[in-house]
Specification:
21% strand; alpha/beta; 9 helices; Rossmann fold; 8-stranded mixed sheet; two-stranded antiparallel ribbon; 35% helix; 278 residues
């Protein structure tokens, strides 16, 4: 099997450019493809994402990973786009994912149109992957890592203080950089959380094979979100809970070594897509 090569692309996004990486061993012949979506404060080159993309590509799939246009991160993984980060919303991220799915399916990423498409989403990206899978007939398999079960992640008190000030400061744990987040996302939640952003309702609509992966020691998104999503799926999804797993399964940025927990998660993920996309 050919060694995967990497190309870089841009797509028009909701708040700016969607920065896209494509890894594949064959750009001319149609083959299964997987789209990898990061979560809040994440980006396509954070820690574990290039590694899982490479593993999937070496298993014979084309892999598309991307920065949502409101991630705030540039192609080097530096948060040089604070204005876009500050205006980011769930609906903007969902639209960016939808545009990426469409570009892949149309063969617009220097890649032949795929024979099938899988989605892999982490954290907030997992929630968006659920919503996209629920509405898009183009998706053939889904894996979520530490996915959120609801878009409403803040208390009433926190949201009131946020609105009074007009923004909330979000700190980058790696660099210490402080990035203001405006109230656009609160408006989005109020308008759409019971409709287009209802992740639980979306989970109930999914008909394709779905693997839910979550660490029982997740410090950011409780494992209860995973069990709630499993229930919402009507038990059709497969639930894989890791007793020692944290939010990133032991991965850090930059990734200096591959933790055993992450190895388990990647192995299950590659096996899932290899089984259901071929």
């Amino acid at each position: 099997m050919a060694t995967p090569s990497l190309t870089k692309h841009t797509l028009p996004g909701s708040l700016g450019s969607i920065l896209v990486d494509v890894r594949t061993g064959d750009r001319k012949a149609p083959r299964p493809a997987v789209i990898v979506m990061h979560g809040f404060k994440g980006f396509k080159d954070w820690g574990m994402f290039p590694l899982v993309a490479e593993r999937l590509a070496r298993a014979g799939m084309s892999v598309v990973s991307f920065n949502v246009s409101g991630s705030g991160a540039d192609d080097a993984g530096e948060f040089t786009l604070p204005g876009q980060f500050g205006r980011n919303t769930y609906s903007a991220e969902l639209e960016d994912l939808h545009r990426t799915v469409n570009a892949l399916g149309a063969g617009n990423l220097d890649l032949a149109g795929p024979t099938s498409i899988g989605l892999l989403g982490h954290s907030r990206g997992g929630g968006m992957a659920i919503l996209e899978t629920a509405r898009s007939p183009a998706i053939n398999a889904l894996v979520t890592w530490a996915a959120i079960g609801s878009v409403d992640r803040w208390s009433a008190e926190a949201k009131a203080a946020w609105r009074k000030r007009g923004f909330v400061n979000i700190q980058n744990a790696r660099t210490g950089q402080v990035m203001p987040l405006q109230t656009d996302i609160l408006d989005d939640i109020e308008k759409n959380s019971s409709d287009s952003l209802d992740i639980s309702a979306g989970a109930g609509k999914i008909q394709v094979p779905w693997l839910i992966v979550h660490g029982e020691s997740d410090e950011s998104v409780a494992a209860a979100d995973a069990t709630a999503l499993h229930r919402a799926s009507g038990g059709k999804a497969e639930l894989f809970l890791l007793p020692e797993g944290g939010h990133t399964f032991g991965a850090t940025h930059p990734l200096s070594q591959t933790p055993d927990t992450l190895e388990q998660v990647m192995a299950r993920t590659v096996a899932w897509f290899s089984r259901y996309l071929y």
